[in-house]
Amino acid sequence: MNPHKLLKTGEMFAMLVILLSLKASDTTASLLAQHTQNAFWYMPFISLLVVLPSILILVHLLKKYEDKNLVQLIEAIMGSWASKVISFMIFLSSFILMGFSYRSYVGQIKIMYFPQTPTLFLYLIFFIIVYFAAKKGWEVIGFTSKIFLPLFIVSTLILISLTMNDIVIERIFPFFGSGKLPILKEGALKGSIFVEVFLITIAYTSFKKTNYFRKGLFLGLAFSTVKIMLFFFIYATLFDYNSIVMLSYPFHDVLQYVHFGALTNIETFFMIFWLLGSFLRYAIYLYLVSWIFSEIFHIKHIESLLLPIGFLGLMVAVISRNVIVSELVFYNSISNYITFFYIGFPILLWLVSSLKGEMIKQ
Amino acid sequence: MKQLLQLIILLLSLLLLTSCYDKIELEQQSNVIAIGIDKEDEKGSFSFTFQIANPEAGSTLSTIGSKEEEKETITVPGTDILTATSLANSFVTKRMVLDHTKVVVVSKELAESNDFLRIIQSASRKPEIRGDVQIIVCKEEASQFLRNNQPSMERRPHKYYQFMLQRAIQTGLIPDADFHRFFQITEGDADLFLAIYATTLEENEKEYRITKEHNYIAGQIPKEGGNRTQFIGSAVFKKGKMIDILSGQETRTSNILDKTLHMDNIQVTYSDPIKPDYQVAVDYIQKVNPIIDIQYNKETNHASIDVTVPFEVRIIAIPSMVNYLSNKEHQKKLCNTIEQTNENIANKLIEKSQKIYKSDPFYWSLYIRKKFKDIPSFEKANWDEEIYPNADINVSFQLKRMSFGKMFNDSRLNEVTE
Q1: Element (H or E) spanning B63, and its range?
Q2: Of A41, A119, B44, B241, whose CB has the highest number of CB atoms within 10 Å?
Q3: Is A181 in CB contact (< 8 Å) with chain B?
Q4: Which chain B residue is nearest to residue A183, measuring alpha carbons?
Q5: Is residue A4 part of a domain?
């Protein structure tokens, strides 16, 4: 119970949905389609099944240890030295992911909407907006997410209704895509789609009741999974499996294709909501990453970390843009490795914690 | 005071929203409405024709007596569309913008060559060219087509293409042939893609060939007056290469048999079963999609396809004055004739596609996909070379309802003339 705190289930739900469901609009879809062909639309469900046990274990531990957040929990269980290593791994992986998706989102904005603007300029604008949004603090981010979420959902519903005429359900067949074994393997490897669920547990204690956090987490997780799958389903039925592999940003291709009666070229309408969503997503992301860092090194003011960490993230994005030509290859393998780590560490925590419990009993 | 200052700062920040780099005024851009692509003699080089709309012409804003044209048509050589636009800028005053392109016109010569897929592929890489751009194949050079096309009513080109194609697609005489569909079908590598066929050249030798159904291809309609451009029929593409032309009637039949295409009511004539010299004109209404039932045998890789097309008709004109309204027997005969005629046309088209094209223009590979567990086995079974050409196909048209419009009966012509 934290009576002086204001965040409730609604805010948690909104933040998690924004964090996760925006994945429907980036390169994740075509990344999955590379290996699974037209089975990619239900891949998030397989990934969820793979990571769900670890999420449940983590939430169970958080509940058991009461008012501790992710890093404090790890410290309580693993002791100071080992906890530093694990926590720092979490920080590092989330930091790199932040940098990469930063680059991916700016890339989308540039290619689709502002082809003439220098990329560095877009990075800076994006960074400034996100920084000031994050600087307002965790609670303001939460409220903002809650206020904007209905708008995002309404615009999504409009978009879905506009595509209804053009989808061809038969395209989801053959149902098992590139074969049962490859899709199971790929689904398991791409558990990293849900990395944000692990990261947001750093905010476990910031809610009025921890019960609100858990409720928001599971509702948000279910809602986002459905939303991502719905979007992937639209991609699979609107473009066929051979075309989806070639499109890097299927979301924007859908936006360009739909028309409202005789009114064509309406993508800018949806672009506003998408842009707002990605700003918010990055504000949340940046705050979470800074928070993890501040907890590891016991730094009091998270807000003072936002600028250096955000700026370093920007550097990762800019540098990687020069070094790595194909996002597809690099991002693909990095997200595969990360999956193992995130599935593994809650299980490790649980084992150690229950062994400790045994020893105390004896 | 402080609030006022904040308000001023807030309002000033609006100035930033004009997006400095990508800001472009409407009058600073040349909107390309139609792109024509022709093959040049040299390998890998093409000529591009851009039809640019003048947004000022025809609008209420234009000054009275303004001598500006509605459109400008220019041709430049190049290797792909986008580099050609930059070359064109050496004599077009404004930046060429492809966001509003409605059609890509390709000459038959280019469509039949291997280069077509190459050039279209490179066009789709840029986000400017949208999925809803229609592909038109024309008999002559694309540049000639665009220059000859001089509509007198819809003089502004974007309106012309929008209305012309919209209506012709609704009547089913031309297919819906956008980029989006082209890539799905071509990359899907199982079915045939139909592109719009059009021409501005009228065929002389067939000038007076008047068929009773819409069995024309572009250039064959014996019309007088109006724009010389005709949009009717379709160009058949197999693996991104044009192989044949379908007539308007065949195109419509394939539209009927394809559930992914949407169609409006269409007016058709059938020969009168009682007095064969006359034709009965009907409104053909397709409210539900055709039912396609595929039985597939895995061992023999053989399929039998049962197609049921439920449809309705509304009688528009009975020039023969035969009483179809109250005479049940006559009605039944008419019913049979309509069903029979449709089945005959469909069977002919299917036979042609099985024997000559070895693939189908109806997107039927969608239905067989359910019979497979995964894509490798589906691709191995080879729909377009193995299954479809050898399949047993049975088409039946079922007339569900016949209505007679708002007239209860025709005036008795015999009595009137007597």
Answers
A1: none
A2: A41
A3: no
A4: B374
A5: no
Closest CA to A12 of A154, A321, A224, A230: A224
Structure tokens at B99: 């966001």
Query: Which range marks the domain in which residue A243 is found?
Result: 9-361
Determine, yes or no, domain membership for A92: yes
Cα A10 off chain centre by: 18
Q: If contacts are CB pairs under 8 Å, which of residues 24-63 in chain A contact chain B?
A: 37-38
Domain count, chain A: 1
Q: In one letter, which amino acid is B357?
A: Y
Please name the amino acid found at residue B59: S
Nearest CA in chain A to B179: A257
Residue type, B415: E
Q: How would you write chain A as a 3-class SS string?
A: CCCCCCECHHHHHHHHHHHHHHHHHCCHHHHHHHHHHHHHHHHHHHHHHHHHHHHHHHHHHHHHCCCCCHHHHHHHHHHHHHHHHHHHHHHHHHHHHHHHHHHHHHHHHHHHCCCCCCHHHHHHHHHHHHHHHHHCCHHHHHHHHHHHHHHHHHHHHHHHHHHHHHCCHHHHCCCCCCCHHHHHHHHHHHHHHHHHHHHHHHHHHHECCHHHHHHHHHHHHHHHHHHHHHHHHHHHHHCCHHHHCCCCCHHHHHHHHCCECCECCCHHHHHHHHHHHHHHHHHHHHHHHHHHHHHHCCCCCCHHHHHHHHHHHHHHHHHHHHHCCCHHHHHHHHHHHHHHHHHHHHHHHHHHHHHHHHHHHC
Contact yes or no for B374 and A179 at CB 8 A = yes
pLDDT in tens, B240-272: 888 888 888 888 888 888 888 777 677 788 888
Rounded to an integer, the average pLDDT of B13-38 is 75
Q: Are B48 and B75 in contact (CB under 8 A)?
A: yes
Considering chain B, what is the average pLDDT of its residues? 79
Residue A3 lies in a domain: no
CA–CA min distance A166, chain B (Å)? 8
For the purposes of burial, counting CB atoms within 10 Å of the CB of A209, is it exposed (0-12), middle (13-18) or buried (19 or more)? Answer: middle
User: Is A121 in Cβ contact with B131 (below 8 Å)?
Assistant: no
Q: What share of chain B has pLDDT > 70, as a percent? A: 84
Q: A251 vs A248, A280, B308, CA distance in Å?
A: 9, 18, 36
Chain B nearest C-alpha distance from A353 (Å): 44
Pairwise CB contact (< 8 Å): A262 & B162: yes
**A171–B20 C-beta distance less than 8 A:** no
Alpha-carbon dihedral angle through residues A344, A347, A349, A350, given to the nearest 10 degrees: 180
For residues B353 and B217, what is the distance between their CA atoms, to the nearest angstrom? 18
Amino acid, single-letter form, for residue A157: L
- Ordered by where they begin, the domains of chain B are 27-261 (no CATH), 265-418 (3.30.300.210)
Domain of residue A256, CATH code: 1.20.1740.10
Is B31 strand, coil or helix?
strand
Are the beta carbons of A244 and A36 closer than 8 angstroms?
Answer: no
First-last CA distance in chain A = 32
Task: Give this complex's ipTM.
Answer: 0.79
- Residues in chain A with pLDDT < 70? 1-3, 262, 321-328, 360-362
A54 in a structural domain = yes
Quote the crossing angle between the two packed helices A327-361 and A43-64, to the nearest 10°: 30
The alpha-carbon radius of gyration of chain B (Å, integer) is: 26
Chain B nearest CA to A138, separation (Å): 24
- pLDDT (tens digit per residue) in A101-129: 888 888 888 888 888 888 888 888 888 88
Residue A70 corresponds to which tokens in the numbers above?
């992710």
What amino acid occupies position B301? N
Contact B17/A at CB under 8 A: no
Min distance A183 CA to chain B CA atoms (Å): 10
Q: Which helix (H) or strand (E) element contains residue B267? A: strand B266-271
Record: contact B184-A239, CB cut-off 8 A: yes
